[in-house]
Amino acid sequence: MAPMAGAGETNPLARLGAEEDIAREGKFAFDPWRREAALGDLTEMKAHILVLGAAVLAATQAFAAPVDSDGNGTFSMEEMSEAYPNLTEEQFADMDANEDGEIDEVELNDAIENGVIEG
């Protein structure tokens, strides 16, 4: 009898043993060792999913963008502090290339590119 589709694949669910045992003997023979290996693989997959989810959350938070709450087209120290809580006045002054007390889009992009803040 030819093996059923999926026999020998690395899919943890396919390794529960049913496909190979049915193909080999024409009946199901329970193999607890195969089941444990498959369940271990599933647990490992769950761990990878959790790590990936945490990485996505961290990346989302790392790319916080300031909000121009007063609509003037630039960002004040207060607006920048909302997006970057650890921003110091010294960093803000370093970003403010034209020294107008506000950060425009060009200054913000320059600050991100130069590592003054993380974007």
Describe the protein in words:
The chain has 119 residues and is mainly alpha-helical. The protein folds into 2 domains: 14-62; 63-119, Recoverin, domain 1 (Orthogonal Bundle). The chain contains 5 helices and no strands. It is rod-shaped. The longest helix is centred in the middle third of the chain and has 31 residues, at 32-62.
Helix tally? Answer: 5
Low-confidence stretches: none
- Total domain modules: 2
- The fraction of residues in strands falls at under 5%
- CATH class wording of the largest domain: Mainly Alpha
User: How many strand units?
Assistant: 0
Q: Sheet bearing the most strands, described?
A: none
Helix % is 40-55%
Which structural class should the secondary elements be placed in? mainly alpha
Name some characteristics of this structure.
Recoverin, domain 1; about 50% helix; single chain; mainly alpha; about 120 residues; 2 domains
Blueprint of the fold:
Blueprint: H1 18-25, H2 32-62, H3 77-83, H4 89-95, H5 105-113
Short account of what is shown:
With about 120 residues, the protein is an all-alpha fold.
